[in-house]
Amino acid sequence: MSFTHPEILSEKRNLLAQCLKKAAVSKNGAVRKVLLAGAGVAALAFGVPQAAFAQADLPKTIPEGLKLEAAQALPITPFYTEAPSADAPTWPGGLIRAEKVTDYAIPAGMTAWRILYHSLDAERHDVVTSGFVLLPAGPAPAGGWPVVAWAHGTSGVAQPCAPSLMKDLYYGDEGLFEFPKAGLAVVATDYHGQGTPGAHQYMNKLAQGYDVIYSVAAAHTALPGVLSKQWVADGHSQGGMASWSVGEMEQQMKNPDYLGTVSVSGTVDMLDFIAPKPEEVGAPFYFPMVAYGLKARYPDFDVHSILTKDGYEHYPLIATKGCWFTGYAAYLGKTSAQIMKPNWTKVPAVQAMLKEDIMGDKPVKGPLMVLTGGGDVSVPPGGVKKTAQKACKNGIKLFFHLYPGLDHDPTMINSTQDQIAWIKDRFAGKPFEQNCGGF
């Protein structure tokens, strides 16, 4: 298959102009973040520092972060919190309730539904999970719309941080809407603890994998005859780990309707993601969220064992209310060494998380596509590539591609059409081309 490459000079010039123009007028906080990051990538062609663009319009204070999130927020209604009816199913994938949604900012013609369903946490305990379904415009084809089970990247860890509680569905113009435009239905989990009450087991491949898989069963119940039985998993960042985990789980479940996985900029090498770096890069505000996820997974874990006083200062805020923008602003200017205690990655709970989140060792069902950006400072591309190479050595057939120069969110945006083409090949039954040994 052919791949688009934004490093071509003429394309960069157009991207720079478009991103700067859109960023100047957009009122959507999430879109502004992405557009400015994309402008930074394009600016590399002209010697302009990417950081000047990527950080230009992000919040610099907690009130600014909360304001950006409030502008996109939808209320947590009884849909998310009301106890299931007595006759509601209780098995994983069982639909509790569904409702058509009209308050999302989605392209004309598309329709959206919220779903609430049963799933499992990392220890296979029952949890209630929310999500949404996004349908293409027009009537469904014979057999239903082909399904992409979408796993989102980090939005936060608190209950209000669910994409289904955001007007733009969090990813909005960051590639999400391109799937329905291409005739693919999106079934998107929020992950349990986001939207629904309870603790979100952040960065746990088992919990997030279950939430993705069981969202598909729930969506089929909610919209009978509208969705194809066949489906593909796709995820970015936190969701890139989740979608790869789906492939591992499906190897055991042997669902004949599951056709493969796309993992984009996935946290598939957790140690590489959290390990202290000689030169500070990326966003240390992710690490207090990791502490939250550890507490959710291991209730006896004490977050003070890894967070410094500065690290804990804003932890209660992001644990209960603040999402991505607030977390970014709360720890702006801090280094990981300032907010995390020395040798924190060696704490037993962290080591248990790293062991549970190992990727590339277990076989996966169906084809696997692994994408990353060469300029990613949030999820280092070296760890993604190393995990893909390990998977190949373990007999896992996959297709790997690195987009030169692209940071974390621009990788998702600029690879969307490649993802769609690959996914459509799976539904068309075309042979899978792997490139193990060629990267």
TrEMBL record:
- Protein name per Swiss-Prot or TrEMBL: Lipase
Q: Give the GO molecular function terms.
A: triacylglycerol lipase activity
Q: Where on the tree of life does the source sit, at the highest rank?
A: Bacteria
Q: Which InterPro entries did the record assign? A: AB_hydrolase_fold, Lipase_secreted
Q: Name one GO biological process term.
A: lipid catabolic process
